[in-house]
Amino acid sequence: MVTASAGGLALLAGTAFGIAPAAAAAPPSDTLQQQFRAAADEFHVPESVLLALSYQETRWDSHQGLPSTTGNYNVMGLTQVDVAAVGAALAAGPGPDTVEGRGDDAPPRPVKGTPTPPTVQDGPELHTLDAAAALIHRPADDLKRDSAQSIRGGAALLAKYQTESGRGAAADPGAWYQAVARFSRSGDPGKPNPFADRVFDTLRKGVSRQTAEGETVTLAPVPALTVTRTATRAVFTSTATRAAFVSTAAAAVDDGTVATSATTATATTATTATTTTATAATAATTTTVDDGTVDDGTVECPAALGCDFQPAAYALTNPQDPTSYGNYTKANRPDDGDGIQYIVIHDTEGGFAGSISAFQNPSNQASAHYIVRSSDGHVTQLVNTNNVAWHAGNKTVNMHSIGVEHEGYAFPTDRPTWYSEQLYQSSAALVGYLANRFGIPLDRQHIIGHDDVPGPLQANVAGMHWDPGTFWDWSHYMDLLNAPLKPAIGGTLAVGGKVTITPAFDATNQPPVSGTADRPENFVYLRTQPDPSAPLINGGSTRAADWSDKAVAGASYVVADLCGDWTAIWYDGQEAWFYNPNGQTATADNRPGQTLLTPKAGAASIPVYGRSYPEASAYLPYPGITAQTVAPLNATVPAGQSYVAASATPVPSDFYYAQNIDGSAPNDRTLVVGCDTYYPIRYNHRLAFLKASDVAGGSTAEPCTQPPAPSAGVLRGVASGLCLDVTGAATANGRPPSCGPAPAVRTRMNLI
After folding, report:
1. What does the pLDDT look like over 428-443, one tens digit per residue?
2. Which runs of E-coded beta strand occur in 592-702?
3. Are 93 and 11 in contact (CB under 8 A)?
4. I need a surface site. Which of 40, 242, 297, 309 has the fewest CB within 10 A?
5. Element holding 196 (H helix, E strand)
């Protein structure tokens, strides 16, 4: 989640999306299928194009006429945003967060300067609902609440775009590529458009789905479809507003496919975000940083996404203080031994351009590796994956993760209820690519939300973030990753077995959330007894931000008890009950190879940790590094309870020290690895860590001996994945021989 350290990015105000207080109208008597057909006939748009476009906007869901996180409405995803209200909300933000993105317990860096609050820049991309309403001569509220009017407005707008492209109405679906691309509100229509590519891929393959409202809509496949892509250029009235499209050259794709985007985008990228800064940052391919190194800006991204690179700040806020830098840490992951194990899903709590600008201000002390735009799924990279972005509020998680921001808001006061389909699809394509590249398991113990990240110390727990919120559709997202939440082979629920939370994200799972109408949610409530009137555990509430009493989709636990339609799990050191009739909200997963951990024999309870730092003796070879606190949370696992390990073997304890911007401090840019090892577990709503030496049920620990102190002149930093142990014995991406097979202290070389 992006937030400014003082007065920064804020939640959108209640009037920002122009929500009227009346409830959404009841579905019309005609089916959605008939409504699409009628609108297509009325506005001379191929019905198949209209169906495929709507599917890629909303999967044909009306969302009860309520807005998305970026002001989209109803089945066509048309936009209406009150720019003045957005600006007022951003200016009156909630103030500083209690947990820094860096996530360590060091004193705050002596940062000079203040974050620059984003200003609002208007543009027609924020008002497509109003434009469509004018075309069909209906009040804008009709297009919000009535799916038939939403479809009519979308069809009229698409027909207008087709006419302005110079092609006119055409019966051939393949001739509508540029109009569809413009409908996506993409910032650069001169490039291949991932949104349009997905629309025409949907046309080619066909799709059928039952919507959340219970209507079945079907699009027949057109496998032989040929798409004509017309190159265009945009005419801008300002740096961020697309005013008109002018047709230029045309080219046909004869093989029935749509050409994919280039691996990298050009250096000037207009955005369609709802907010931007007064001095909008432009994309760049290189940036020189204070230590004399160059971030080459290489985009690490699937080619079809057409990602660009706009570098986050790596600069001092006080030229006299080399520690006053932001917004990320130089490293050489994973070759330096700092393995990448997680991908963390965030939402920005600000617009696309405004969030990028915040990351480019070193006073904000926050960054992410990527950000995904809501309107068309465009992906911008900000930090190379070998470096450590400051995004999770927990240094252990930062060290071992990649952070992906998504344009949107976890719970604005006007309660938007959904994320765009393009955001889900681009994010899943990116995360699938990264998981394959770094060997990250595609499960919810490794593909996690910011709300899954533990507080590193007890003082941080209350301030940890809870994005992407209760209406992020984990089930759909994991389906897009080809990693469905429900295991193919699970067995039956049994005490002592594993269970995964798997509620459907539809009308069958609409637990109440304070201040909002019933809607699909991604969690189940947990109670003290198998009774709907029993209190929520931990004295919890129905507030969306209260994660203490919720088990989120994809999280796995050990079954503590069964009682009729109720299932109990071990959660937060206690027995917690949820309603699970016929396995409706959770699925057994008793496949072989599960690692279930319990306190070792003779222990009444064992401590729970929020990070996996080394023991104090691991720092002895490094006089320039202060040993970090190893302190448990105010949490335990009592004897008799069991928790699911996120990995079959424990992970090393480690700490990456990076003090000065140029790596010049004593022992700077050093990875300290201890002999202690930890198991990551799902402890409550969030992950946590147990020391391997405290548990039974895991693998047998191997002996570990700390090496002697190094002689003077040990090199520091990163180079070519080589490790150097303190006696000078080099190994390639492995452990120093002085520690044997167990983790050991390593220092990394930077040949500068």
Report:
1. 999 999 999 999 999 9
2. 596-599, 605-607, 636-638, 643-644, 651-657, 670-682, 687-691, 695-696
3. yes
4. 297
5. helix 194-205
